[in-house]
């Protein structure tokens, strides 16, 4: 599936001059952007709220948020932000965040890098272009279920940590504070990035994940080590995607 838009621009009405400037700069570079003031006739008679959610969760390849002090006050912008945050869980490179002078970034966005608005829409358009070229084409429509993400806690997952488990693909040690995803079928524990980027959200030919770490991991540790050793000599991605029987 092709995305309907390269970029969707989310902004509060007070920043519409900035948004239109960016929109025009993008158009000049032949980048298709969704700027709602130019698409009002398309929106007549449809459920605007559900359409906006779909726009940010599915239809756009990238999103731009022009964040200002007005942004968190708007009903539509709040809805758009929540859709963007959902998508960000799956695609960390989905958002280009532009922050206007004097705006205080909310907690939900505080970990992201951002660009301070410097009145240069062309510079933003160039960043968008570059991001579009380098972005892997993970189709959000392919990802049917959002994975359950578990954060490893020092006390809560004490025995898990004591086992010094590693990510089955990257072989990175799983530590306190790491975000992991557990395949519902084989119960293997993957780092979230591995699950999303390397496995594309699929393991054992399915995409279901556990809500909590299994109390007792069915595979004895030695078994997992053995599997890891065998797997390290194979092409992980193809192997894990195509051979559900292995686990
Ligand atoms: Zn599995």
Automatic annotation (TrEMBL):
Q: Which GO terms describe its biological process?
A: signal transduction
The TIR domain sits at 3-135
**Annotated transmembrane regions:** none
Q: Which residues form a coiled coil?
A: none
Q: Report the SUPFAM superfamilies cross-referenced here.
A: Toll/Interleukin receptor TIR domain
| Pfam annotation, one family | TIR_2
InterPro entries cross-referenced by the UniProt entry = TIR_dom, Toll_tir_struct_dom_sf
Query: Which superkingdom, per the lineage?
Result: Bacteria
**What protein name applies here?**
TIR domain-containing protein
What is the species listed in this Swiss-Prot or TrEMBL entry?
Kordia periserrulae
């Amino acid at each position: 599936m092709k995305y309907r838009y390269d970029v969707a621009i989310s902004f509060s009405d007070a920043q519409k001059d900035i948004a239109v400037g960016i929109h025009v700069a993008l158009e000049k570079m032949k980048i298709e952007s969704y700027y709602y003031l130019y698409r009002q006739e398309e929106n007549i008679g449809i459920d605007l709220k559900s359409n906006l959610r779909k726009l940010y969760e599915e239809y756009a390849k990238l999103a731009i948020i022009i964040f200002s002090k007005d942004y968190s006050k708007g009903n539509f912008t709040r809805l758009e932000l929540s859709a963007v945050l959902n998508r960000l869980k799956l695609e960390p490179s989905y958002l280009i965040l532009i922050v206007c002078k004097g705006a205080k970034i909310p907690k939900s966005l505080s970990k992201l890098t951002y660009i301070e608005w410097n009145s240069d829409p062309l510079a933003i358009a160039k960043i968008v272009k570059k991001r579009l070229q380098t972005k892997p084409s993970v189709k959000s429509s392919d990802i049917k279920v959002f994975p359950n993400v578990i954060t490893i806690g020092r006390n809560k997952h004490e025995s898990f940590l004591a086992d010094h488990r590693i990510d089955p693909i990257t072989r990175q040690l799983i530590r306190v504070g790491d975000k992991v995803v557990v395949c519902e079928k084989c119960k293997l524990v993957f780092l979230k990035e591995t699950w999303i980027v390397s496995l594309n959200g699929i393991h054992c030919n399915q995409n279901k994940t556990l809500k909590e770490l299994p109390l007792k991991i069915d595979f004895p540790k030695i078994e997992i080590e053995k599997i890891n050793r065998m797997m390290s000599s194979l092409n992980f991605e193809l192997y894990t995607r195509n051979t559900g029987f292995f686990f």
